DNA sequence: GTCTATATCGGGATAGAC
DNA sequence: GTCTATCCCGATATAGAC
């Protein structure tokens, strides 16, 4: 692997582990056994490294959020959520210091907002589809509040969980996050669907 | 006001505005028109200032969370939430850089966890009470997921809202947060109660 | 209690040789 | 592409006079 690429990989790893604000360029260089000068040859500063990482995150996330407007079932939603949580876990450093990062790197701020917006839209698309299929019941007003809550939970569940149960390593508990989001949707489902979902959840979590 | 107290007040204000990691002791001193030396006479370091602020936050929050185990109605819950959001808004710097702060100031970590735990318990107490009064319907499992979601939303709503709608000044929108939490509870309410709640919400938000 | 001056340190970043 | 050496700066914290 080329140095430029190794820098990106190690940076992501260190950012995720220690938090982006707590990782220095020297630390990154040390970890790679290269000199700081070398690092600065490849990236002109720390900001550029972060931008590169964000661009990759953004690209993957937007791709994922480009939801085809077809009929979607509960199982599809489940899978969809799982994929989203995977991407977030991969770039969790962004989420752990979200406000701070968006404050210090102003250029990514609008782009992150756009992702949030797309997430809300995707949620709305899915929920509307479920409603059209008579799987889910709810007023427009309720659906909007629901989708806001879904996006909030997706965004912050990993951090929230981390505070309560400090993870030693990479053992992020994706399943629990998916469950938590599905529990937001559950009460709006028809009785039959709800039971099925709850059963799935229990199995999934254990 | 004595200098020691003025330091605390200004620090809180600056932390809230710029984020705790971005505020220096020099900035605090400047804002008060005192010398850095003087500041360090009153507090031996920045950590001590933060601890003092956290202690005040903690004291107020725990006081609030000491929920009397009596019959609680929807309106009481509304008020209760509003008081909680007020405290959080007052010390929002903690929430904006939560993971980071808990990482760098290890001593407050267990204390914050305890507050989260108490919040979950308080939510559970309230929801159980509502269920006993037949206002709310739900299995134990559902109530637990619900209360987790409530606490998550309480914890992160302000930050989430901030990202989407950058606030120029102190105009924190408490109402919307309360609404968002209530929308989590709504689907579990009996039809009559639910309609009443939604009506209340609409009025409250406008 | 308050000030000025200063020490110390660490992180970001550059210059120039190889 | 990579290294060593170094600069610069800002932040924390202390010393000692008033």
TrEMBL record, chains A, B:
Residues 24-43 bind DNA. One of its GO terms (molecular function) is DNA binding. The keyword DNA-binding applies. The keyword Electron transport does not apply. Keywords: DNA-binding. InterPro entries: Homeodomain-like_sf (IPR009057), HTH-type_Tx_Regulator (IPR050624), HTH_TetR (IPR001647), TetR (IPR025722). Residues 1-61 form the HTH tetR-type domain. It holds the Pfam family TetR. It comes from the Bacteria. PANTHER family: ACREF/ENVCD OPERON REPRESSOR-RELATED (PTHR43479), TRANSCRIPTIONAL REGULATORY PROTEIN (PTHR43479:SF12). This is Transcriptional regulator.
